[in-house]
Structure formats: structure tokens, C-alpha cells
Amino acid sequence: MEHHLLCTFSSFLFLFLFSYIPITSQLPYGSSSKQAHNYSNVSCVENERQALLQFKHGLTDESNRLSSWVGESCCSWEGISCHKTSGSVLKLDLRNTLPPYFDDNDYFKNRLGGQLSPSLVNLTNLRYLDLSSNNFSGIQVPAFLGLLKNLRYLNLSSAGFDGEIPHHLGNLSHLRYLDLGDSGFSLRTKDLGWVAGLSSLEGLVLSSVNLTAARDGLQSINMLPSLTTLDLNGCGLFIHPHLSHINFTSLAFLDLGENNFSNYTAPPWLRNLTGLHDLRLGGNDLSDPIHGLFDQMTSLVYLDLSSNRFDASTLKSLCNASSLTYLDMRFNNLQGSIPSEIGQLINLTYLDLSGNNLQGSIPSEIGQLSKLTNLSLSDNELNGTIPINLGQLTKLQAFDVGDNSLTGVLSEDHFAKLRELKSLDLSGNSLALNVSSSWVPPFQLHEIRMGSIIVGARFPAWLRTQKEVWELDMRNASISDAIPSWFRVLCHNITSVDLSSNSLTGNPLEFKQLKHRPSRYRYREIFLSSNKFDGSLKSLPLDISYLDLSHNFLTGHIPQLEVGQTSVVQSLLLNDNRFTGTIPEDLCKSENLSELDLSNNLLSGSVPLCLGNLRDLWLLNLANNSLSGQIPSSLGNLWGLLGLHLNGNKFVGKLPTSMQNLSNLRILDLGDNGLKDIIPAWIGERLSNLKFLRFQSNNFHGAISDTLCQLSHLRVLNLAHNNLSGFIPHCFNNISAMVSGLDDNRNSNFSQESLQDIKGGREVEYSPGSLQFVKSLSLSANNLVGEIPDEIMELVQLQVLNLSQNHLTGTIPDKIGNLKQLETLDLSMNEIFGAIPESLSDLYSLNSLNLSHNKLSGPIPSGNQLQTLTDPSIYEGNSGLCGKPLPNNCWEHKLPAKNGPIDDDEGHSESDWSWFYAGIGPGFAAGLSGVLGILLFKKSWRYAYFKFIESACDKIWVKTTRPRRNFR
Ligand SMILES: *[C@@H]1O[C@H](CO)[C@@H](O)[C@H](O)[C@H]1NC(C)=O
Ligand SMILES: *[C@@H]1O[C@H](CO)[C@@H](O)[C@H](O)[C@H]1NC(C)=O
Ligand SMILES: *[C@@H]1O[C@H](CO)[C@@H](O)[C@H](O)[C@H]1NC(C)=O
Ligand SMILES: *[C@@H]1O[C@H](CO)[C@@H](O)[C@H](O)[C@H]1NC(C)=O
């Protein structure tokens, strides 16, 4: 999206440059169309008038732009200019001039569409044709345009044309400017040979035309000696390293961004283009070019080298190019410090070195670049303080040093002369802001990004002077204060406010809905999570698309909506507060709601049936409340749901069969309820995208259905603490995510620190960051019988295997040593007999083991990781076992017959667990992770959550806009 906007922006700039192309000076009516209308009283040529009417007839014109196209004097019609004496039509300009703001319907309505009538060829004197920014969706560029022999200017950009570009356009030998750009890769040409016919061409724009199949590369374009402008951005063109002789040496503008350069090297012939003013090579992964590539380009003013792999030597060599006003080298391979020679680029207005690996301090020479308007050094490893003389850059509008390791205290002096500043990004540094409470900054900022620096303790009073803010990020900024009442007013005009992870107190903002909100507020976002807000909410601000009040101390009921209020809320996160009462049915009126998190509150009552009307919902998290009743069958209407968390409530009864419609579900957590059902076959058969399935601590009974084995993406299966009976299925080796791990996004170890021990070691929360990598199977505390199936030993990705507290018999399979990733193995409290296989010592990652209270016998294997597991309780209650860490030595122990059951004199009672929880010692938390793992959320985890359900992410990104820092 960002990229798309950038493209659009650059093409705008470009059109702007070209709207003054000297073509019009060739026309008899001078350069402005206003003058042209002076001749509108000439009578137009009847044949041409008919041709125009016929042309209009083919068009669709939703906004009725062509309403003036009636009557006799066609020269006065909208978009038409005629020759002053002959009355012949010279110019047809039907460009849609409205700006394409993406939530602005007017732009779309104003687009012409339909068919292009061949009657146009009767406008034999036509010199200028502009049909750009319209919507001729899917039709081809008509070949008859090649018959308009007098055309000087042809612009078909952003007009929705599709398919192969007709070679007939190559007949337009007088054409000076041709723009077929921004078709979104739907226009294509297999062969650029036709271009060579455009012998008068000065400007050629083919940006985002699909040229991947154009094998002749730039050869045909090289036939155009008058070319001054060439835009091939995003064409996928193969750029040859060699061109025998360079014809287009008059080029002033060249955009070769996002193409395919041979060997990722800038070709040597670029060096000959000594007249270039504007060179754009972004997004090509180019490595450092042959030495001195830019040395001869002494006229270079604008240089975009972003998203390549140029290193610091290129930057240094550019420091001689003192004509440069614009230098973009973000996302390259710049290392080391910023050369102090950068101070020689005295004409720079725009400098972007963000997203590199620059170290050292910011050279004070940058403070000499007195014309700078935009300075971005973000996302590097810069340290030291911000030079105070940057405060002398009086023209600076955007200053971005976010995400570095800068230190020091910023005072009012740093900003004293930055009168023009609109965008300030200091976030993610060890900076502190120290300004007086009466400070009146010289600027009026639009964007304030001060996340994770020290802004507080007091709420920044200077914000009150900032009347034009539309984005404010002061998350984690060490503010411990109440939100002042004046901020509540200011806040109404801000599109995105992030004050999360501070210690803000009091009642959060009183949200009032504005009557006439400009459309830019449609995506308004407010993040206030992880503060100390308390009290109750009077109203819900449903004119906000993303509202996060999670992790506060809010009490009272979730407020009702005001009558007649229309809701645009898409994400409503009220989790981890102290809300009481029921879930209001009113919420169901928020028909755009896509993310609803009410977990970890004190809500009671039943789930409103009407939640099933929220068809856009992809996350519904009601976990850990006191909700009761049955799971409403209407939830089965939420077919877009990716995550459903109903765990930790008091739900009873059966699973509604309508839930089998939730085929997009990735995460289903129904644990810790009173559900009483069999495990329905449709879970395995219909919910085929499930990655996480947790039914722990309910009353599920019956056998474990073989159909669960069809869930090939499953990473976590937790059926512990139910009444399941029968055998463990032999088909678990069909769950390929546990077998191959091919489902993984990254190959990383399940990191121990990402598990957090909460509630006295009994429950363990998975951060979704670790969830991506967790593979866990837990069937403990059921009534399962039979042997441990050998097939389980094929689940080589498993990190957690817990089969404890069942009635399993037989021996531990020898192949247990295959489960190399295993960190937790719990087989305790079964009736497993025989010797412990030696291969257990192959489990190098094992850090939690429990084999207690079985009928195991013989010597305990030693060596490797097993040697570190020295707690004797791991093995206790197996009277036949001997050797370390048990006190009895094997030589004094009667060796049991191999595989023979040994009586366990101690026995154990199923209901007395106190010893179990008490005696197991360290590693217990991890040991239970597969059993009790539940998903709890922190804001910072949301990104990981998205990743876990990755395949559906595209959809989510479209729906939720987030400030960029939040996902870093
Ligand atoms: C052009 O005009 C002639 C008559 O002047 C007419 O016969 C012909 O159909 C027109 N061509 C088109 C394509 O409309
Ligand atoms: C680009 O065009 C070629 C044929 O010219 C076609 O094979 C290819 O699929 C196109 N690429 C895209 C992304 O449309
Ligand atoms: C340069 O342009 C001329 C005239 O268009 C053409 O004849 C010649 O072949 C071109 N040279 C190359 C190397 O393409
Ligand atoms: C590509 O670059 C590598 C390393 O710079 C070089 O060795 C190789 O010859 C180049 N290949 C071509 C086809 O130019």
C-alpha cells in the first residue's frame, strides 16, 4: 500500500512536470486552455461534431461531465479546443482531474468509462488527446489511435486499459509525448520495436507496463534521439549491461526503478547520460556500481537509489555532487558512520538515509545543509546526541531519527528555529525531552512520534499549542499523569492517538461523536492500553475505527450506544479490565466490527445471539469471564472468523453444529468451561485450517475421533482434563505440521523466555510469538487406554508431549528418541511398564520430564541431557526403577524381567493431586505448557498473532490500519 502510494506520488510529480510540455506552444492558441476557449465562437466542422457525438455515445459518464456536449458549437464543449480559423478540433482533454483520495467517491464517479468509438479518427487534425485517470476497465488500447497522424500528445495513463499495446501507435511519427503509465501491470508489450517509429518522441512513460517479455530491452528506445524523459518504473524490464552506442544522451529524466538489472549491477552506459537531472533507480537490489558512476553526472539534481544494496563508498562519492537537491538512499547497505563530507551537499532539500546500518553519531555538518526540508535518518544504529545545530535548519519540515540508539536530553534550544517543522519522529531512542511547562514551540506539528522516549512524568503541556496534529504517538513515554481536560478537546481532531503503556490515570477520554466529521477521520485510531485508567465509560466512541482500552482498570458496564449512533468501529479491544454486567446487545449494531476482544473481564450472562450478525468479525475473544449458557449457534454465521476464544467461562451443553461453518478458523480455544459433548467429527472434517485447538478442562467424553488427524495444519492439540476414553488414534502422524514443520514461517527454537508463568505456576501463557513455533500434543487426565501408538514417535516436531494421568499400558516406544525437539515429556500416572528406552537420552532439548507413578522398571538411562534432570520425583512411584537420581543403586536392586509388569506397591489415588503439584520442582511450568497453555494478549503480541494466522493476513491488513511503529 505504502509503495503504491509512493508510485502514485511520483507519477503525479511527473505529470506535473509534463503538464507544461512545449507541445502546446506548437498549437496556434498558445499554452493555456483558457486562451483556447477564446476561440470557442468559431464554428466547428460538422463532420467532427458528429464524430465527437458518436464518441460521446460510446462513453459512460456517471457524473455527467460531458453535459456541455450538446448543440452546434462543439468548440465550446468541455475538454475541446479548436483551431482559431478552421475550427478543426485540435485538443481533446478528458482527463479526470479530481485527486484520487482513496476514500473519496467523487474521484471514482468522475471517471469516464465505456467504449472508445473509432469515430475519433475523423478528428484528423487532433494534436492532443488526454484520456488519463479514467476507467476503461479491461478494454484494449484501440489500434485506430495509430491513425491520428497529427497527434503530438497522447496520455492514456491510469485509465484501466488492458492487454497488449497495439503496435500501430508506432505510426505516430509526430508524437512528442506518450504516457501509457500506471496501468497496474495490465498493459503489456512483448516487443518494444514499435517505439522506434516514434521518431519525434521527447517523453515516454511506460511505468508499470508489463515489459517482462520485451526481449529487445532498451534497444528500440535507444532509437529515439530526442528523448528527454523516460519513465520505465516497475516494468520488470530486463536491463542489459551493454548498449552498443547510446543515442538517448539528451535524457534529463530517467526512471528505471523496479526492473531487472543484469547481475544486479548498474550498467556502465548510464555513465554517458551526463545531462541527467533526475535519476531514479530505486527498488532494484543494485550492488555497488563500477567506480565513479555518478562522477560525470554533474547536472544531477534528484537521485533516488532507495532499496538497493549500495554501500557507504557510493554515499561518500556522491558527496561531490553538490548540485543534488534530493537524495534518497533508504534501505541500502550503508554501514559505518555518515561521512562528514555530506556537508558539501549544500543544495540538498531532501535527505533520506533511513533503514541502513549507519553507526556513530550524526555529523554536525548536516546542520550546514541550510536548505533541508526533509531529513530522515531513522532505522539505523546511530548513537550519541542530536547535534544542537540541527535546530538551525529553519526550513526543516520533516525530521525523523526514530529507531536508533540516540541518547541525551532534548531541550527547547534544539527546536528553537524549526518554525516550519510538521513531522517529528524521535521514537525508539534513549532520548529524553526536557522542556518547560510553559514552552510554546515555534512549530505546528502534524505528526508527533515520540514513542519509547522519555516525555513525562507530567503530561506534556506544550501539546496544547499544537492545533494541527493528526498523528500522535507517545506510547511508552514514561508519562504518569492524568489526561488534562484540554487534551480531550484536542484529541477530537487527531486521526491516530497512541498513548498506550504509560501510567495515565483517571477516566479515559470522554468520547463525543462529531456531527460532521471529514472523511479523513474515517480511520481514526485510539490506543490507550496498558495505563491506569479507572472508573467507568460513559459512552463508546463508535466513530473511531480502532479503539484499544485494554489492560486498564476500567469498571462498570460496557456502555450502551446512543440511539441513532452509526458505528464505524472495526476493532474494539476492552480486554483485561474489570468490566462487569453482560455483553450489551447494542454491540451487534457495530456492523463493521472485525475484531472484538472482551477477554479477562468480569462479564457474566449469556452471549448475545445477535453477535452472529457481525459478519466481518475475524477475532472474537471472550475468554476468562463468567459467561454462561450455551455457545449460541448463531456464532456459526461468522464464517470469516480466524480466532475464537471462549475459554475460561461457564459455558455448558454441546457444541452447536453450526460451528462447522467456521472453516477459516485458525485458533479455537474452548478450554476451561463445562461443555459436555463428544468431540464431533466435523471438527476434523470441516475446520481444516485449524492450527490451535484447545478443549482442556471440559466434560468431553467418548473416543478421540480419527477425523482429528485430518487437521494437517494443527500445531497445538490440547484435549487434557476431560473424560475421553478409548485408544489414542494411530493416525496422528497425518498431522503434517507436527511431522514436517513445513508450516513454519521461520526455523527457530521454541524459546523458553517467551513462556510466562502466571497464577502460581499453574497456568502458562503462550505469547503468540512463541506460538508460531510451538508444537504440542496434550491428552492428559482422561481415561485413555491401550499403548502409546508408535505413530506418535513420527511427530518429530513436537516440543511438548503430555499423556499423563490416563490408563495407558505397554512400554515407552523405543523410538521416543526420534522426538528430538521435545522439551517436555510427561507420561506420569499411567500403567506403563518395562524399561525406560536408552534412546530417551537422545532428547537433547528435554528440560522437563515426568515418568512418575507408572510401572517402569530397570536402570534409569543416563548421559546427555538426562544427566541434568536430577530431580528424583521424575521417576518416583515406579518401584522397579533404579539408579541415579533415585537413591537405590541398581546393583542392590533386583533386576526385573524385561517388559514384565511390576507391581507398584505405592499405588496412587486419582483424586489426590496435592503431591503432584507440590513435588515436581523446576521445569513444572514448562512441563505443563502444553496442558494449560492458553492465549492471553498484550497489544505488542498482536502482530505475532497475525503472523500465526498468517495466510489470512492480507485480508486483515486491508481492514485495519495501524501506525507503523506499532508493529516494529
Ligand atoms: C468519418 O466521417 C465520414 C463522413 O464524413 C463518415 O462516413 C465515417 O463513417 C466517419 N468515420 C467514422 C469512423 O465515424
Ligand atoms: C507479464 O506479461 C507476460 C507476457 O507478456 C505474462 O506471461 C506474465 O504473466 C505477465 N505478468 C503479470 C504479472 O501479469
Ligand atoms: C541511434 O538512432 C539512430 C536514429 O534513430 C538510429 O539509426 C541508430 O540505429 C541508433 N543507434 C543505435 C545504436 O541504436
Ligand atoms: C556477475 O557479478 C559477479 C560478481 O560481481 C561476476 O563475477 C560475474 O562475472 C558477473 N556476471 C555477469 C554475467 O556479468
From TrEMBL:
Mode of membrane association: Single-pass type I membrane protein
Cross-referenced SMART domains: LRR_SD22 (SM00365), LRR_TYP (SM00369)
Pfam families (UniProt xref): LRR_1 (PF00560), LRR_14 (PF23598), LRR_8 (PF13855), LRRNT_2 (PF08263)
The keyword Transport belongs to this UniProt entry's keyword annotation: no
Example GO BP: defense response
Database matches in SUPFAM superfamilies: L domain-like
PROSITE patterns from the UniProt entry: LRR (PS51450)
Transmembrane segments: 915-937
Any one of the GO CC terms: plasma membrane
Compartments, as annotated in UniProt: Cell membrane
Signal peptide region: 1-26
Highest taxon above the source species: Eukaryota
Main subcellular localisation: membrane
Family, per entry: Belongs to the RLP family.
The protein's name: Receptor-like protein EIX2 isoform X1
